[in-house]
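Margin note from the TA: students keep mixing up input and output lines. Inputs are the sequences; the output is the structure of the whole complex. Example:
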Amino acid sequence: MIDKCPYCGSTEIIYDSERGEYICTNCGTVLQEHVVDLTGGRKAYDEEERRRRLTATPTIGLGSKYSLREMRLLSYGLSRRKMTIRELAYKHYEKAVREVLYFLKSCMNIDVDMSEIPKTLLTICEEAEAEYGDRGYRICKASILMYFRYVKNIQLTGTNMKYVEKNLRLDPQDLVEGKKLLLKYMGNDIMIEPALEKAIKYIDERFRPLVRKIVKRLISDSNIVRTMHRSIPCLAIMLVIMLAERLNIGDPYAIREIALREGICSRGFIRNLKKLNECVEIEIYLTDSSPPIRV
Amino acid sequence: MLNPHIRIRIRKKLKVSGNIIEEEHIFKLDEEHVEELAKKLRK
């Protein structure tokens, strides 16, 4: 440590820790170079680093003011208080719903009311939170968007997809996960109905309610039918085709065509349709006395 | 059951055990269905 400048006699000597030099502020002479910094602890070699050292507290881990969970709450803009998962999910749910609704209104010109949203989405948000962690919020948004896609028939391709990526900050992978989650909880309501609607158009008008009833009951009650195909809309269409063929009440080829064209049914569809046909035996009792007609 | 109805029997042989599982579902038919179906099935 130097107290006095040997050239001008000034005592105003500063230590520049960035460069490791003692400098006389009066005449500007560098009095000592390459000084080893022995201060220890948290070293900072430039201005930005020093500022960071002074202000930062560790965010996560030992010495942190907040727990991991609280950090997450803070990042969602909630106050620092204890919340149950359900409360947290509820907040997510509301925020995600609001964000998606705003997106639909501003980008797609679709006005949806808050009351149209089913409470099952809350379960989905809880599941997203539990399963995907920090990504949960995005998955949650994706599920809500997918819900409206099915209910309101929104096309999520081309420009619309770009809007989604830009405004909702969701990537295609999020949408895939969101869809999975949505189908797990609401597959029946939102998937069977639209698929059935498309297929049933090609059934004789008088038999439409009957076919709808049969298909819905078989899908919900029959364990065997449920194992025939992974996709429930596909299964619904298979059943409609089978009934159209066997009872001679519709155009099975038209239904098959539309199912394949719209991507409701996949490659394994025809094979599964054959398997279904082999498994099912239909007997029709038209009058009290006559023997049943087998089709 | 003697009223007009459709009986759907589903039978499946399990791959692993070879057991056959069976289910039966019955759907009632309305009057108009009966006539129409008779016509259609006769064709």
